[in-house]
Design brief:
The protein is α+β, with helices and mostly antiparallel strands and 101 residues long.
Length: 101
């Protein structure tokens, strides 16, 4: 199986939606831009946010198995994907790519 690199690329924040719909919370997300994990055998890396993992798991598993070319040419590199976590107020975008040794 391939190793898959997962990089936190960018976080978007929607303060207007937070003000309108979200209850105030003290702690949200520990992910930081540039943070990187390596998935081995399609498994969730240690320290990876479980909610973010839920959003990307199927893509990581497919890349680990050597599958790719999602949505018939969506990505320039067919062995990659750009996936966002499911936080509608402050989603992070993650770049997934097969580790090429």
């Amino acid at each position: 199986m391939n190793k898959v690199s997962i990089t936190a690329v960018r976080q978007t924040v929607y303060p207007d939606l937070m003000a309108r719909y979200e209850n105030p919370i003290e702690h949200t997300c520990d992910v930081r831009e540039g943070q990187r994990w390596i998935s081995c055998d399609g498994q969730r890396p240690e320290g990876m946010c479980p909610a973010a993992w839920y959003s990307m798991r199927e893509f990581v598993e497919a890349l680990a198995k050597g599958e790719g070319n999602f949505y018939d040419g969506w990505m320039k590199d067919p062995m990659s994907a750009m996936i966002s976590c499911n936080d509608g107020f402050r989603p992070f975008s993650f770049y997934l790519e097969v580790v090429r040794d």
